Amino acid sequence: MPPSRRTGRLCPWCWPMSWRVRSKPCHPRGPFLCLIQxxxxxxxxxxxxxxxxxxxVIILILWMGMAYxxxxxxxxxxxxxxxxxxQVCAVTYNDSFVESHTFANVSLVKQVMKVEQAHESHxxxxxxxxxxxxxxxxxxxxxxxxxxxxxxxxxxxxRNTLFEESILCAKRGLVGGHRAASHCMMQHVGMTHDCNDCxxxxxxxxLRLCIFSCFFHAIFSKGVHDDASxxxxxxRCTQCDESRCGPAFLECAGANRRRTAIQxxxxxxxxxxxxxxxxxxWWRNERLQEIWQREYGDNxxxxxxxxxxxxxxxxxxxxxxxxxxxxxx
Length: 329
Known about the structure:
This protein is mainly alpha-helical and 329 residues long. It has helices spanning 15-20, 38-75, 106-122, 149-157, 162-188, 193-209, 211-220, 236-253, 270-273, 286-296, 302-328; strands at 88-93, 98-103, 134-140.
C-alpha cells in the first residue's frame, strides 16, 4: 500500500502508477481509466463529446434532407399511370433476326399474329416452314433498351437479388461515380450495355434526388418495406426512387419486372401494376435466346447491330406484307 502521507483513497488496480503520477484520489470506476493521465483523460472526454455531437448533427441533416425529399415525392402523382398505358412491346423473330417493336394496343399485335398463323398454314407444304416468323407480346409499354430476351431473362434470374445488387453498386457509385457503378452492374448483373446504362443513370438519379432518404433508411431500418405487416408499403428510399427517377428509367429501359409480369422480391399491386398481356415465360425460349446471342451478342459491334436492326425492320415489313397478301389469295 502507498505511504500514509498520500491523502485520498487510491484504487487497487493502479496504485503504483498513481504513486508516481497522480496527486488526486483515484475513484475505482474501471481498471484502465486510472492508468490514463489526467490530460489524456480530459482530451478523451472532449473527443467523445465532439463525436456524439457530430453524430447528432449528421442525423439532423439526414432527417431534414429526407423530409425535403419526401415532400417532393408527395407532390408527384402515383406511378401507376406508367403501367396503365395501352402500348405494348412485341418481339418478332425467325432464324435470322430478333426485333422488338412498339404497338399502339394489344389488338394490333393479335392481328399480326393471326396474319402470321394464316401465312404459316397457307405454306404448310413449303420448304421454308422452319423459318417462320413469330410475334408475341413481350411486355406492356413502349420498347426500350432492356426489351431484349437477354435482359428480361436476367430480370427473371435475379428477381430476388437485383434490388440488393443495385444498392451495392449505388454505394460504389457514390465513391467512384458513373464508371464505378457501371462496372459494378456489368460485373454483378451482366445486362446489355444499353440496358446497363439505363440502370446506371437511375442509380445516379437516386444519388442526386434520393440520397438522404436512402441513407436514413440504410442506417435505421432494413428491407424493402417500412411495415412488415403491409407488403404494399415501400420504404422512403424506394418510394423516392419510383416517384422521382422511375419515369425516366422506364422511358430509357422500356421493360422492368412489373411490365414483364415477373414477380420480384418487392411485392406489388398485381391488379394495377403487373402486366397481364405478356406471353408467359417467353424469355425461356432456348431457340429465341440462341438466335439473339448469335445476332446481337457481345461480340457484335454497335455499328453492326444498327445495320442488322435496320435490315431486320425491312425484313419484318416485307414478311408482314407477304403474309397479308397471302391471306387475300
